[in-house]
Amino acid sequence: MRVAVLAHGKFPDRAKTAVGVLRYADYDVVAVLDRERAGSRVTDHVPAVQDAPIVAGFGEVPEPVDALLIGIAPIGGGFEESWRPDVIAALTRGCDVISGLHYFLTDDEEFARLAAENDCELQDVRRPPDDLSVSEGLADGVDAEVILTVGTDCSVGKMTTTMELAQDARKAGYDAAVIPTGQTGIMIEGWGTPIDRVVSDFTAGAVEEMIREVGDNHDYLFVEGQGSIVHPAYSAVTCGILHGAMPDALVLCHEAGREVIHGYESFPLPPIEEYVDLYEGLAAPVSDTPVVAGALDTSDLDDAAARQALTEYESAIDVPATDVLRYDTDDVLEAIL
Amino acid sequence: MRVAVLAHGKFPDRAKTAVGVLRYADYDVVAVLDRERAGSRVTDHVPAVQDAPIVAGFGEVPEPVDALLIGIAPIGGGFEESWRPDVIAALTRGCDVISGLHYFLTDDEEFARLAAENDCELQDVRRPPDDLSVSEGLADGVDAEVILTVGTDCSVGKMTTTMELAQDARKAGYDAAVIPTGQTGIMIEGWGTPIDRVVSDFTAGAVEEMIREVGDNHDYLFVEGQGSIVHPAYSAVTCGILHGAMPDALVLCHEAGREVIHGYESFPLPPIEEYVDLYEGLAAPVSDTPVVAGALDTSDLDDAAARQALTEYESAIDVPATDVLRYDTDDVLEAIL
User: Fold this and answer.
1) d(Cα B95, Cα B67) in Å, to the nearest integer?
2) Which of A257, B113, B220, B301 is 20 to 30 Å from the Cα of B163, by its Cα?
3) Which residues belong to any copy of the D-glutamate N-acetyltransferase-like N-terminal domain (chains A, B) (predicted)?
4) For the segment B212-241, what is each residue's pLDDT rounded down to a tens digit?
């Protein structure tokens, strides 16, 4: 499938869905929409992903194209009205529109009408199934080892770490699958449940259901974590995944230099070592779940500083760590597998 | 308002909504509907609540009556078809119907039609508002002191403790209000948001919104907690309330003798003292929130055993505790106010 990816004003640093799709999905990306970067190319900004031109609007997306994918997610998950002309242009050209926003495109009268008129589909991947239920506390009954990525904050690399570790485990000959819990993971894997969107009573149950659905068919499940257990807004999602997944091991993800909660700057991050106690202590009554490895995003640092930051991070959490995009994952995988 | 309370086959022990309404709500309860107890009176079964006759069906409810309130919640929150004649009789007599079931009465065609024909209202208190959003981390900006009840498990007295402490604080001359987060609390207080039904991303935000709505009008807010931070299924709700409320103090609720999670008997409760560390440790990155008091449900024990259990409980959590229905709340309120 050939897709254009909308990322106005946010590519690449605040467009994690767009970058995730460019890096991991099977889609052929024909263009990225970003008014502020128009005229440049994807690889001018992000190394080692598939390349594509960056254009100002859907009118400049080259044919053929099958779908427009919303590649950014503002806090709150609303729809920015400035994107409406691009969505209208896509639907008018007969393209599907794939969105992970909290705002459901199928509930927008204009989009629904245009989609019907042009015989194309609005895919709201963040709309959860309506047959979810409460957890039964049975996720640890599956044959697979379950590895959950957890974070010190939002946007510290949980999805990337999940994808890289699963990919590298497969390359090393292990049967590893991903349990996608968020919009980007779902867009990449083509299935999954958007845990942040389920009824809060069913948070753990929705994760348990996915693990039990595929767990006996694989040796390792890498569960995409969400949020952070210390996040003022999103910790409920994190906690539900931690208890619903009943994981065998945790990988603690962090961004080097991050000192306060992103978007909630009055909340400082606790010391790194406290996270290990918090996650293990909170997991313990439901499952015995040690932090066995770490992942550190060092993309803002030069190589010497990155290696220094990794050494400090490993010392703080007392297990092997790596930057999954910059260095190899051998030691981390050895700790996990 | 004069209400009849439906509790067929469950009054009083498995009708916690009915008992909560009888004990705390401002409604004038004119009858309880329970086929199996018809002919007796409320105070034959529950001491120290408002009295009313128990009748077999809505046809026997004395005039005048303004509403029928569904006072029981079966596992799963479904609607029992055996209740349909009572709901129809109420609507036909022009009464509103108030329900906290997961099954929404407004989605039932027959009830919706009868309500319209008879100009009465179907109130589904478990339907959350549709304009909720993520927390901004601002709940501690209100003038009031915020006190949250937390639990070792579900059904250990968080709602009762919340209501009793708020009531006793008011009796002692303090301006105290309740923040209702579950169906019974909402029915008693006449407002509130059913947190277990909101989208998980908005769990903290929904609590924050309620606190900010009324916080500047009161000196003390008693927030009704839900679930438990160690619950395999419901911990997401608990965690979201803990971080969304940004409380100044916690009251840890427990039932004497409870050793395993109710309904999840393969999960033992952690030692009581660990709960203090878990709740305080999890709260700390968002708000400095000590456990300042405890509430112990001793209803299964005789007086000597109850006092012994309270002594042990106080020693484990190292703060004053009481059984809020059995003994006075003086020491606990002194620790809070």
Assistant:
1) 5
2) B301
3) 35-128
4) 999 999 999 999 999 999 999 999 999 999
